[in-house]
Amino acid sequence: xxxxxxxxxxxxxxxxxxxxxxxxxxxxxxxxxxxxxxxxxxxxxxxxxxxxxxxxxxxxxxxxxxxxxxxxxxxxxxxxxxxxxxxxxxxxxxxxxxxxxxxxxxxxxxxxxxxxxxxxxxxxxxxxxxxxxxxxxxxxxxxxxxxxxxxxxxxxxxxxxxxxxxxxxxxxxxxxxxxxxxxxxxxxxxxxxxxxxxxxxxxxxxxxxxxxxxxxxxxxxxxxxxxxxxxxxxxxxxxxxxxxxxxxxxxxxxxxxxxxxxxxxxxxxxxxxxxxxxxxxxxxxxxxxxxxxxxxxxxxxx
Length: 302
Ligand SMILES: [Zn+2]
Known about the structure:
By secondary structure, the protein is α/β, with parallel strands linked by helices.
């Protein structure tokens, strides 16, 4: 996990990679894997952040916290489903030992990464966790992260940014957001957005230009999510509030629980497979997909 370790090397606190399992269904049933970004404090590292509101960077573990929240709720609700929770947890600190802009690291997938900005650390800890998720032969992998300021600019504090390479999974998550009041909005993943991530020295750079920053971050993650059905929730705008109402919101625990309990309620449990078509065909009942299709189509137009 060279990418995750590169972020952690500047901190006096040792990193932790947390693995949780909720077993509510037969062992043969493929799990949903939730991956939560757990940056317990984000200074930006050597690419250090400006001072104002830096205290709020304690909320950069909002993705991890939402995974923990989902697991607490699962233990009470006991739905018939299997869920794995993965949390790469570390601080991102500036230090004599910290990773430097220009350093090239090797991720768990074998892909090399040129770290151009040490404040784009969330994708570095997530990419190794996504590779780790493959071993569970998941029916779907959803990562949750306070990933980009660009997502706050795009969607504000109202809707979470949703990115997915799987239309059926995107529909299910969008619908779960609508019915739980914890809404999200689908964003694009055209390959042209990945152009700016090209590097002369590595397989990929960890940042592109300022334009469409939430999309280029998702394009980075997508490189590590090729072998399963994948969605990414950018909660940078929705995980916490600033100012007088400062504090965590608990989002998107509601969205995720709605998705998981609906999945558990579906009569035909999906089986482990790498084929997206087989997975989505098994887990979506004809009536539900017919209902959710128009809204998802509207989402794609945006
Ligand atoms: Zn950062």
